[in-house]
Design brief:
- With 191 residues, the protein is an alpha/beta fold.
- The chain has one domain: Metallo-beta-lactamase, Chain A (4-Layer Sandwich).
- It is 25% helix and 21% strand.
- It has 7 helices and 11 strands.
- The chain is globular, with a radius of gyration of 17 Å.
């Protein structure tokens, strides 16, 4: 990691976590503490930083011998739904998208051309969605998050998933089988 940062002359200012699963958090403490930067995570997933096996199946926990010791970085900050983070010249909006984990979030920032870019973590993938069968997962919450927080966006919104290729909201709206039948709530209509 340090070689990559040096090669590109980059200095970390924060670590942003879309959720607490250990495949997304295992290097958080060394990166944060080694560069004296905070980790940002939703409060509902914070306990996964120190106890990552809470978020995996019993079989996966057994693979690690029932123990996987990680620790929180020195500084952890809470992500709140709707908050705006100003970091390294970018403004990122935080949207809480529970379903994959209770504390899943996506980060959104606009490009200079006005197109939104969503850092989606494991909420939405090209052709799929994050799994909801792990501890803390909730399929109904996932569908609500997708409907209310992602399908409300313009078709040209770029989605950068936590795994796999980039996609757009329009592409996923048209072809993702998990989104079939989900419709975004109408804007501007009250009861």
């Amino acid at each position: 990691m340090d070689a990559l940062l040096a090669e590109h002359r980059l200095t970390p200012v924060a670590v942003l976590l879309t959720h607490g699963h250990f495949d997304h958090t295992f290097s958080v403490a060394p990166v944060c503490d080694g560069h004296d930067v905070p980790a940002w995570i939703h409060p509902d997933d914070r306990d996964l930083l120190a106890d990552p096996l809470k978020g995996v199946s019993a079989d996966a926990a057994a693979f690690f011998g029932g123990r996987l010791e990680l620790r929180e970085p020195r500084e952890v900050r809470a992500l709140d739904d709707g908050a705006a983070l100003d970091l390294a010249g970018l403004t990122l909006r935080v949207d809480h998208t529970p379903g994959h984990t209770p504390g899943s979030v996506v980060f959104t920032t606009p490009t200079e051309e006005g197109v939104e870019v969503v850092l989606a973590g494991d909420t939405l993938f090209a052709g799929s969605i994050g799994r909801t069968d792990l501890p803390g997962g909730d399929h109904e919450q996932m569908l609500a998050s997708l409907r209310d927080k992602l399908l409300t966006r313009a078709d040209d919104t770029v989605v950068l998933p936590g795994h796999g290729p980039a996609t757009t909201v329009g592409r996923e709206r048209a072809s993702n089988p998990f989104l079939s039948g989900l419709t975004a709530p109408a804007k501007g209509r009250g009861l």
